[in-house]
Design brief:
mainly alpha, 67% helix, globular, single chain, 90 residues
């Protein structure tokens, strides 16, 4: 069975509003650094300590974070989230 290719607009719609806003805010040259630092805890909870810190560190670098987040809008995360089975339930 052949997979349907989704258009860019469809991918953006599928990504969800909050995800786009968060990534867009991280892309701001220096304001994005502040936002990336503020979201370190969120990244650590989602990805684990090492991957979360690395992801936030890359996002905090102005030009590199911009490029990374622009690519991730279309391809998904470079550093994947933790497995759902390993997450603790609160």
């Amino acid at each position: 069975m052949a997979k349907k290719k989704h258009t860019i607009g469809r991918k953006l719609l599928h990504a969800g509003g909050w995800q786009i806003v968060k990534r867009g805010a991280k892309m701001l040259p220096f304001g994005g650094t502040v936002i990336a630092i503020g979201l370190v805890g969120h990244d650590i909870r989602r990805k684990g300590v090492v991957k979360g810190v690395v992801n936030s560190g890359i996002d905090a670098i102005p030009v590199v974070g911009l490029a990374k987040n622009a690519v991730e809008l279309f391809t998904g995360d470079f550093l994947p989230d933790k497995d759902e089975s390993k997450k603790t339930k609160h």
